[in-house]
Queue: 2 jobs
Job 1
Amino acid sequence: MSRDGGRWWKADKRSETSIALTPLQRYTFDLRGYLLFEGVLDEATVARMRTVIDDQRLPPADETIERQRFGHNGDLFEWDQVFCDLIDHPLVLAVLMELIGPYVRLDHAYGITMRPGTSGLGLHGPAEPFDSSQYYLHRMGVLRSGLLTLTWSLSDGGPGDGGFGCIPGSHATSEPLPAGAESLVVEVPQPAGSLLVFTEALMHRTVPWQGADTRWAVLYKYSPGSTAWGSSPAAPPAVVAKMSEQQQRFFQPPSVGGFIPTITR
Ligand SMILES: O=C(O)CCC(=O)C(=O)O
């Protein structure tokens, strides 16, 4: 058992790679468009990641979106192996197999930082009209997401602190976003060490940060093997070359032929 009293995810005793989503997790994702796994990273790993980020001496977050983002274009992976290891964390593989399938790319990755009072980002997420780069489908028992975001929280977010907010279930509606939809947004508090999974077809936003401490999170965005959302690779070849064989498979260019299955178990 990896954490949390059996409520969220289980590692089979034989092998970590046999982790699979439970029927309740599948149902919850299909219903809401997001899933939160608590206690996935231990305190030492979170502390290590925070130290690596601190070492970069980033400029403090301000009201501009540029200053609330960091680690683009493979910088995270160049900084430290600890960020590479999250690309194919056993729970990540289980989530990706269920929601994208074995042909999957890491499209892009970056970090978010917010100081108390930082403004955030408005509602976005195009479930309607249909967007073939970021969609959500449920066909014949198979769940499939276009761009899928996996957010690792490196700071404690509590109720009312702000951060990730969404309109649960909006990934499945065929209605255009009406005026007043902001009132339907709910915040999803993200404790340190948690993993939030959401489809980019979900209407979501960054709610202004009211937490006592700075918010830190890293977001890994995965696409089906056939598509790209970003205009450039998630990391330069020299950085990818230092990764494990499995991690390198996540950086294949988008293709409908010749793509090696990313997840081979
Ligand atoms: O604040 C968040 O976690 C959501 C971030 C987001 O939607 C984005 O970076 O596009």
Note: Residues 112, 121, 151, 163-164, 204, 206 surround 2-oxoglutaric acid (CB under 6 Å).
Job 2
Amino acid sequence: MAGEKKTFQLDKETLVIIGAVCLVFLWTVDRIVSSKDPVEIVLEAPKAKQAEQVETKKEVNKANVPLATGAEPIDKIFIQSGCAACHTIPGIEVARGREGPKLELGTNARKRLADPNYHGSAETEWEYVQESILNPGAFIVEGYRDRVMPRWYGQKLSAGALDKIIKYLLKIEEVT
Ligand code: HEC
């Protein structure tokens, strides 16, 4: 009898301990979740705002585009230069433009060079991307119009900024 009672008491203690552990666990989870909330809001708010700005800025105006020195992070170059307003650029959250083709030059630069309609002067993929930024009229991607992409990027992108852009774009491969 006594033995049975002891077992019952032990079980009760165990239950209390398990209950306490659960409470501590729930409290910890609650703390983690609630401490994350404000951080997430802070991180997401500017992103949403940037997307809005890019969305409403369809017309890229030469006077409003600052000179990119190449010291800026790549996403900043794409946004401040207006590329993000017209192009979807994988890896750049706010670049969802549809005026121009999705930039997947890791796959497409090769295709353009091999296109029988290509009559530009680029011989390498690097040169193709450079030419399509500095002299967009050299080759018009099928399905898009000439004279939509600005022709003054040579004046707004330093050699360093241009190199950074080309390097980034050539890494993007088409995902099918
Ligand atoms: C006002 C809209 C607009 C802006 C701003 C713009 N582009 Fe374009 N872009 C286009 C259009 C339209 C085409 C397709 C026609 C053509 O080939 O010229 C194009 C074509 C391209 C191509 C060739 C793509 C391919 O698949 O062959 C590249 C590369 C490119 N743009 C890069 C850029 C970069 C980098 C910037 C910013 C420095 C930029 N564009 C800014 C509209 C734009």
Note: The longest helix spans residues 2-56.
